[in-house]
Specification:
It is built from 3 helices and 4 strands, in the order αβαβββα. β3 and β4 form a beta hairpin. By secondary structure, it is α/β, with parallel strands linked by helices. It has helices spanning 2-5, 15-22, 78-88; strands at 11-13, 33-36, 54-62, 68-74. The mean pLDDT is 86. The N and C termini lie close together (11 Å). Strands 1-2-3-4 form a 4-stranded mixed β-sheet.
Length: 90
């Protein structure tokens, strides 16, 4: 992805899916993590990560405008979120 876009990808997964698909490969831990862990008091992290950037805490919620949107938490400030988006989106 980096060679084609100049941007590092963000990994979106859950602890369980990461274990099932990669066998728990820890070698991707340098990439930003968007972890799915619904109804968890804190996210279960896949092998290789000791922190998360985004946490999907539920499937969908209804936004103020009536649209259904994801239910996610960012672990940082608004400025850090802008930097993360800038670094990882073409």
């Amino acid at each position: 992805v980096y060679q084609r876009t100049g941007h590092l990808p963000m990994v979106y997964t859950s602890w369980y899916m990461w274990r099932q698909v990669t066998g728990g490969d820890p070698s991707f831990g340098r990439l930003p993590l968007w972890v799915a862990c619904w109804r968890c008091p804190r996210p279960l992290l896949p092998a290789g990560w000791d922190d998360w950037d985004l946490w999907q805490v539920g499937s969908v919620v209804t936004g103020r405008d009536g649209r259904r949107v994801g239910s996610d938490v960012f672990d940082g400030t608004a400025r850090e979120l802008r930097e993360l988006v800038t670094d990882h989106l073409p």
